[in-house]
Design goal:
Number of helices: 9
CATH architecture of the largest domain: Orthogonal Bundle
Mean pLDDT: 90
Strand content: 15-25%
CATH class of the largest domain: Mainly Alpha
Number of domains: 2
Strand order of the largest sheet: 1-2-3-5-4
Number of strands: 10
Structural class: alpha+beta
Helix content: 25-40%
Low-confidence stretches: 164-173
């Protein structure tokens, strides 16, 4: 169930902010578009039952990043009032829309749009890799598109810093099933690395290019997991077959079942994308 905070209560609890609107909440956080002075910001109030250690790791994952394709953390604060402690974070507010609005059945993006959006997403993922961070929940709803058309990766609630012990139990599946990699499908936390995010990127890229999910024929979650774990079959898809050879090669490599067969880095994917004529 989403963690919902009434906007009037939020106004009373956070008088330093002007509340513009409530944003879509998650199980871990209530979110609001707010203003402080002339700055548009995103205020996220952390649910009391959410793991404080996981929230602090999300902050640790974000606080050093200053890259235009990754959302910027402004501050992380906890306050105590009336014996109740509230944790919240303030991020930049991304004027624009979710990528999910641009990923629709039957809608195939032009090549130049694919190169721009996914090339810049690779720039953001490259920054995450440099800092040893895996997002683990890359999906259209976790990517905002600025009014300029540039993408921004948001919501690091499931991010993992590879140089710290995992908070996820072995066998536990975390993320969004539609964008799971094979290693996520089986709950193999020890195999999670930057190539896990590249797999999700490939699934989203396939959707943008063909107007359908690579496992669009799956009818149940079990069908989906089986298709992913066996290796998605995309080569015979008519829309996919009509794509430029360079783009087909990139998507095919990103969606490889074995991590070792996926591209070694997002930097390489960006370079290959931008070289397609």
């Amino acid at each position: 169930m989403p963690f919902v905070v009434d906007i009037d209560k939020a106004r009373a609890d956070f008088p330093d902010f002007e509340f513009v609107s409530a944003l879509t909440p998650s199980e871990q956080k209530a979110a609001f578009h707010v203003r402080r002075g002339t700055d548009d910001l995103c205020l996220k109030i952390i649910a009391p039952n959410h793991s404080l250690e996981r929230a602090q790791r999300e902050v640790a994952a974000m606080q050093e990043i200053d890259q235009p394709n990754v959302v910027k953390l402004i501050e992380y604060v906890f306050s105590s009032k009336g014996g109740r402690t509230t944790h919240y974070m303030v991020e930049e507010f991304i004027q624009g829309h979710d990528l999910a609005q641009d990923i629709r059945p039957g809608l195939c993006w032009p090549l130049e749009q694919i190169k721009k959006v996914f090339g810049e997403l690779c720039d953001g993922l490259s920054e995450l890799r440099r800092r040893n961070i895996v997002h683990r929940d890359l999906k259209p709803n976790n990517i905002r598109i600025r009014e300029s058309g540039s993408p921004v990766i948001i919501d690091f609630g499931l991010a993992r810093m590879l140089d710290l012990d995992s908070l996820t139990q072995t066998g536990m599946k975390v993320g969004t099933p539609l964008y799971f990699s094979p290693e996520q499908c089986v709950g193999d936390k020890h195999s999670i690395d930057h190539r896990t995010d590249l797999y999700a990127l490939g699934a989203i890229m396939f959707q943008a290019a063909t107007g359908k999910h690579p496992c669009h024929t799956a009818r149940t979650i079990d069908d989906l997991f089986q298709a992913v774990c066996q290796g998605v079959k995309i080569s015979d898809d008519a829309e996919f077959a009509s794509l430029p050879d360079g783009l087909k090669m990139i998507i095919t490599r990103l969606l490889e079942k074995e991590r070792s067969r996926r591209p070694v880095s997002a930097d390489l994917v960006a370079k290959l994308l931008r070289s397609i004529k």
